[in-house]
Structure formats: structure tokens, C-alpha cells
DNA sequence: CACAACCATAGGCGATGCCTTTGGTTCCTG
DNA sequence: CAGGAACCAAAGGCATCGCCTATGGTTGTG
């Protein structure tokens, strides 16, 4: 890219001079002294290699080159104005994009209402709720592509990340067999169950599985998943068909069981086990107003469903 | 007009940084040191009141505000480029307007061929040949609206103007009566003639009349115009009809008599009297290339018809 | 765990921009 | 026609800006 030799200040002085036909008047309008404007014009003429004004005793008269330059100079300054204005509009949430990360099943925790919250307050903005899966969201945070996110985490310890828990959500056992949900499910019973688990692509980092692994650690076994699927709705449907049981967040169970597995029921684990919903961002980051807005709204929505911390 | 707080340099650094995702790489591209670019970005962020990049250990990542700013920044720099380019095009006679002053009857002295000369050499330019009348041209020169002109002058003395004669043109007596053009016309005969004179609106400053006044000064009489008209063609036609005689530049007589007054003929004055064609511009002016071009071409055309000096 | 990549900070230096003062020119007016 | 008013140019001084080098801190990688 060619580094331009002319400056916005020169163009401003040029336009003011053109319109007034006088360096003195231009200087007065711009709040500068007459020699300053004179110098700017001279510098501009020198760098362009052309004469822009004829000095004619009283006042100055634009040359035809100045006639040519004027509309271009106006366009430059107008573009600058637009640039500044558009940034301010983004700053004021009148326009622009607000990008925020959410855990994968945000749809079951008021994700659409969260977006509605934002759009109601700020009708002009675009909203991007990133949350295909927790791993990618975490990676986006780490790489700086995302500023902040609301995630389901199994631990608040994370290298270089600040994790602020805002709510906890019980993990419950669901089954089509009423006997198995008649009483709280112990680690031992869980370790012998036949389970269908969702989020198979990210099973290594899925917070539900990690939490279950911690629970089963004392039994010396891993969670015994018999079926692996991608999304929680499919898992619940399979539970309803009786192929397996599952462990899901309680809010998801309450929403999905009536719709997808009406014959199934749920029970707590013993001891109770919780997923944690937390605001996550890079340590040391100064959060933008947009991020703070999303954190505030998302926290409210989450705490209306899960248990506030 | 609001004086902008941001600079083209900042926008250039911003774009380079945006494209590379790195201050170091941007600095390398722009030929600056890394801290310089870093400072520009920081200043820009501060003046806009927003964060444009998140610093993420290795490299920087644009925020959504930066996404918004980018197209505007590009437009600003593109407009600057266009401005510079258009000025250069005017400088190189590829575009723009060339404005030049000419005496009123330039049409009889190759005016259209002069314009053809310019357009042949520089097909892209606009040409404005200003010359409704000498007074206004002179006023335009004085006020700086015109840079230079080719005028018919009665004297080379003029306050604040540099007058450079390039050719002289004899003033001749024309008449439909062959007797009156059988021999050179003396001042005495001229003072008793019945004349039709053109350029009546500007009769006070018309160079032909001024020249005649000087010639008649010794006789103590003013030029005896019986009829006053605006344009020389009408005057010649009236001469052809026998209503009056006239005094016109020789080139005009040679061109107009056969066409408009075939029965009329011309004779020299005694002593011979001349109009002077001269290049006129403000004293002390540094002439632009465009003006020099017009002066060169107009001089050639005039000298091909009138007598070079 | 050490190295490489990258950004931030600090200090120094030259250039830029602005100001005031002054001089010269043009134009108007008494 | 002479004096004054309006205006631009030039010069000198001062503060700020922009850029550089050197250095330190942090992150990601072999």
C-alpha cells in the first residue's frame, strides 16, 4: 500500500480556504492562525506538485486543479466522518455485531430468549451466539476470536482463563424403567448401568462426562456408555424407547422428557452431582461493554433456570 | 466542520494490522518499527474510545468494532488515492479543465483551430476559451479568475499586468465605395467619414477605437461613428449595404468581406495603424504548465494570421 | 524447559505544526 | 492621492508528535 503524502488536516484547510476564498477566513473558521493555514496549503501544493490557489492581493482564487480536487477532498472527509460515526454507533449498540459464546445446549436454557433480550434493548445490533460445541468455543476464547462465553464447565481451573461460576445445574439420571428412578442412583448403580451419552464428538472434554468420571473415580470404573450420539434430543428419545438410560442436566430432562420420552422419569444421583455454568474469558482481558452486556443478560437467563451461585 | 481526531496514518496502520493479524508484520509491510505501529493503533483506539484488537500473546485479533471500521477505513484511503490520482491526471493534461482568455473575435483568428490543437494533443481535457469581451477578460485576469489570456491591446502598459506582444495586425478601412479605398486613408479623411463600429457595449475600452482615437488625436476629433453595433459581422454587412464605412482588423476584413460584403473593398490607413495581440497575465505570476501550453499554441495560431513581432 | 515470536514500555531525537511578529501588496476611501 | 484596512508570506520560537532503538514480559512451541 502506498503511504499517502497528504493529510486530512491539509484537506480540511484546503476545503475551508476554497469555500471562503481566503486563508484568513479559513483560519478563523478552523480556529487556527492565518500562517498555519497558509503553511498547510503550501505544503499540500508542494506535495501534489500543483498550484491550488492564485494569490491575488486580497484573497485567493482556486485554480482549475483546485476545482478538480475539491469533490475528492469532500469525499475523503465524508468517508472519515462515516468511519467515526459507524464506530460510535457500534459503541452505542445502535449497529454492529455482538459476538458471544454459549454452551452447546443453550437452546434448552433460554438461548432464544437471551437473544430476544439483546434485540429488545438494542434493535439495531446483530447477534452471534457461538456454541456448536464447548471445545471450539474454548479454542475461540484462547485464540482471542471470542471475547467471552457462558459455558458448562467441570472445573473452574483453566490455564490462562478466568472462570466465574454463576449457577449450578444438577445432573440427573433418566430412564424408561420406573424402578431405576425410584430412588437416588449411587455411583455403584451408575457404574453398572447401560447409558446413552450425547456430544460424542467432544466426549473427551464434555463437562457432563468429566463430572461423571470424577464421581465414578472411587469405583474404579469409567462411565459405561453403550450408545454414543451427537445431540441430547436423540439421547432422550433413545431413553424413551428403552434402549438405554442417560445422565443429563436436570433442566434438559424437565424440558425434553415430556416431549420426547413421556414414559421416562428421572432421579437424582447420590451424592448429587452438578454441572457448573460459568462466564469464561481470557485472564487479564478488559471486557468490552458488549461482553459485559451479554454476561449480564446470559447470567440472568441461566439463573432463572439453574440454581444461582 | 468538525476537525477529525483520526489520521490517515492511523487508518493505514489499522488496515495493515487487520490484514496481517500482527503488529510486527504490519510494521514490516509499512516500513516502520513495531512500536510505531503499536502506538498508532493505541492512539486510534483511544481517540475512538473502543478496543480494535485483542492482544492474544502471539498476534492480535480484530474485535467486531474493527470489523465495522475496516470497510470504512478502506474507503477513506481509496478516496485519498483517487484524489491524488485525479490531481496528477490534471497535471498531466489527461483530464481536468484548461481555462484561457481570448479576445472577442478570436473566431476570426483560428479560435476553433486553437481548441483543436489542444484536444489533439490532450484528448482528455476540457477547454474553456473565455472571451465574450476584452473588459470582462481583463477583469477576470485582475481578479485571478483567469490565469492568462491572449488579447488585442492598444497599449502594453497596464497596472499590475504583464503584457507580452506576440503579433500586430493592421487596421484597415473598408467601404462599399471603391473611390474611398482607392488610396490610403488619412486621418483627416477618416475624421470626416461616416462609420459603423462594432463592440459598442465596450466602446470605451475597445482596442480598435482606442487606437483610432490616438490616430485622430492630432486632428482634434473623435472617431465619427454613425452606427454602433455589437458584432463585427453586422458591421461588415452594413458596410456592404453602403450605409457606412468601417475600420476593422485586416484579417477580419479578408475573411468577412468576400462572404458578407462582396462589393466592398479595403485600404490601409495613412499612416498605417496596428492593433497588438499580446499575452496578458498578472505581474509576478508563475504560469502553470496549462497556461504556458495555451500561450504557446495561441501564439502560433495568431502569428500564422497576423504579423509576428 | 528453553527458545522463538510477539507486544508493551521507556527514553531520545528529529520533524511537524502552531503561534506571534513583521513586512509587503492590494484595495478602498476620505 | 494619500492613508488605512484587509490579506498573504516569511521568520523565529516553542510544544507536540512520530519514529527509532533497547528492553522487558507474556505466550506458544519444539
Describe this structure in words.
Two copies of one chain form a homodimer. The first copy, chain A, has eleven helices and 13 strands. In chain A, strands 3, 4, 5, 6, 7, 10, 11, 12 and 13 form a nine-stranded mixed β-sheet that branches. In chain A, strands 1-2 form a two-stranded antiparallel sheet. Chain A has a two-stranded parallel ribbon with strand order 8-9. The first copy, chain A, is rod-shaped, with a radius of gyration of 31 Å. The first copy, chain A, is 45% helix and 22% strand. The first copy, chain A, has helices at residues 8-20, 23-30, 34-48, 64-91, 111-121, 134-143, 187-191, 207-216, 232-241, 250-260, 289-305; strands at 53-55, 60-62, 97-102, 126-130, 148-153, 161-175, 185-186, 195-197, 225-228, 246-249, 265-270, 274-282, 307-308. Chain A folds into two domains: 8-87, Arc Repressor Mutant, subunit A (Orthogonal Bundle); 99-308, 3-Layer(aba) Sandwich (D-Maltodextrin-Binding Protein, domain 2), CATH 3.40.190. The first copy, chain A, is of the alpha/beta class. Chains A and B meet through helix 1, helix 4 and strand 3 of A and helix 1, helix 4 and strand 3 of B.
Amino acid at each position: 500500500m502506498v503511504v499517502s503524502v497528504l493529510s486530512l488536516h491539509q484537506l480540511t484547510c484546503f476545503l475551508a480556504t476554497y469555500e471562503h476564498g481566503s486563508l484568513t477566513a479559513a483560519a478563523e473558521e478552523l480556529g487556527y492562525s492565518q500562517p498555519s493555514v497558509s503553511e498547510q496549503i503550501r505544503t499540500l501544493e508542494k506535495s501534489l506538485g500543483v498550484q491550488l490557489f492564485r494569490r491575488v492581493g486580497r484573497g485567493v482564487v482556486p485554480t482549475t486543479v483546485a476545482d478538480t480536487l475539491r469533490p475528492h477532498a469532500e469525499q475523503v472527509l465524508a468517508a472519515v466522518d462515516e468511519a467515526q460515526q459507524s464506530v460510535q454507533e457500534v459503541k452505542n449498540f445502535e449497529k454492529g455485531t455482538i459476538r458471544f459464546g454459549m454452551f452447546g445446549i443453550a437452546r434448552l436454557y433460554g438461548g432464544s430468549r437471551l437473544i430476544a433480550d439483546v434485540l429488545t434493548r438494542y434493535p439495531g445490533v446483530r447477534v452471534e451466539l457461538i456454541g456448536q460445541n464447548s471445545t471450539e468455543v474454548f479454542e475461540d476464547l484462547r485464540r482471542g476470536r471470542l471475547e467471552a462465553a457462558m459455558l458448562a464447565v467441570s472445573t473452574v481451573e483453566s490455564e490462562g482463563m478466568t472462570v466465574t461460576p454463576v449457577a449450578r445445574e444438577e445432573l440427573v439420571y433418566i430412564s424408561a424403567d420406573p424402578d431405576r428412578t425410584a430412588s437416588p442412583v449411587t455411583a455403584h448403580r451408575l457404574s453398572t448401568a447401560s447409558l446413552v451419552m450425547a456430544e460424542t464428538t467432544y466426549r473427551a472434554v464434555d463437562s457432563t462426562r468429566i463430572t461423571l468420571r470424577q464421581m465414578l473415580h472411587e469405583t474404579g470404573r469409567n462411565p459405561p456408555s453403550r450408545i454414543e450420539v451427537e445431540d441430547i434430543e436423540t439421547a432422550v428419545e433413545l431413553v424413551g424407547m428403552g434402549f438405554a438410560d442417560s445422565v443429563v442436566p436436570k433442566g434438559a430432562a424437565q424440558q425434553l422428557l415430556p416431549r420426547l420420552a413421556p414414559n421416562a422419569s428421572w432421579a437424582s444421583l447420590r451424592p448429587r452431582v452438578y454441572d457448573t455454568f460459568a462466564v469464561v474469558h481470557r485472564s487479564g482481558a478488559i471486557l468490552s461493554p458488549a461482553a459485559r452486556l451479554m454476561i449480564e443478560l446470559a447470567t440472568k437467563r441461566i439463573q432463572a433456570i439453574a440454581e444461582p451461585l
